[in-house]
Amino acid sequence: MNAAVTDYDVLRVFCAANGGYGNELGVVRDGSVLPDPDGRQAFAAKLGFGGTVFVDDPERGVIDICTPTLRLPFAGIPCVGTAWLLDVPELVTPAGVVGARQDGEFTWIEARAQWSRPHTLRRYGSPAEVDDLPVPPKGERVYAWAWEDEAAGRVRARGFPGRDDGIDEDEATGAAALLLTDRLGRALNITQGAGSQLLTAPQPRGWVELGGRVLLER
Predict the structure, then answer these.
(1) pLDDT (tens digit, 0 to 9) for every residue of the chain, 218 residues total?
(2) What phi and psi values does residue 184 have, to the nearest 5 degrees?
(3) pTM of the predicted model as reported, rounded to 2 decimal places
């Protein structure tokens, strides 16, 4: 790994209204300093965030997404966070072109649910049931959810990545939010984890918008 790579931003994506919660994301704005895929993977593992983005063309929004253990063609948090940081109208990912826009305090992307990693979407009868859930067995990627207010589209959710990358529970899961929105066919206001907020809205021809607040940590 290139030890000289130290210039990266740390964002928190899908924050609550008070600026708390959300998931950390690393972004290397100049991906050319570490062009080798194995080196990028090692650097992402060293940082230890759920996602690290390498920007290969900041003007066109070309990005490469890595977790500590693998490269992803698409992921919600990396795309929302990088769209906010670069302020570009689109991102180019291996999965396809992701639309992006800013709307007040929220950054939105537009993607296809099938680009997301598979999750078991498991509905429960009440938010309290979701809150009381234990961590599922290793290997099962579960997005547990319940209606807080069905008429208003308010959802309580928790994300369990099956201990992937050593994580028992995910504070915010953009990919699963896309999948749930695609299944329900309606806009959602999701509170996940300890207090992260994710907004979604289905769009024509199989697209889904995903929005949230982003803060720069350093």
Answers:
(1) 444 566 999 999 999 999 999 999 999 999 999 999 999 999 999 999 999 999 999 999 999 999 998 999 999 999 999 999 999 999 999 999 999 999 999 999 999 999 998 999 999 999 999 999 999 888 888 999 999 999 999 999 999 988 766 788 999 999 999 999 999 999 999 999 999 999 999 999 989 999 999 999 98
(2) -85, -25
(3) 0.94
Please list the helix, strand and coil fractions of the chain in percent, rounded to the nearest 5, in that order.
Answer: 25, 40, 35
Question: Minimal CA–CA distance to 68: which of 9, 25, 5, 17?
Answer: 25
Classify 180 in phi/psi space as left (phi over 0), alpha (psi -120 to 50) or beta: alpha
Domain boundary among 63, 83, 104: 104
Q: Give the integer Cα–Cα distance in Å for 208 and 79.
A: 13
Which CATH number is 75's domain given? 3.10.310.10
Does any domain span residue 87?
yes
Residue 2 lies in a domain: no
CA 50/CA 85 separation, integer angstroms: 17
Question: Quick check: helix, strand or coil at residue 83?
Answer: helix
Cβ pair 76, 184 in contact under 8 A: no
125 and 159 together in one domain: yes
141: left (phi over 0), alpha (psi -120 to 50) or beta: beta
CA distances from 126 to 16, 62, 133, 155, 184 (A): 21, 41, 11, 10, 17
CA distance 134 to 123: 15
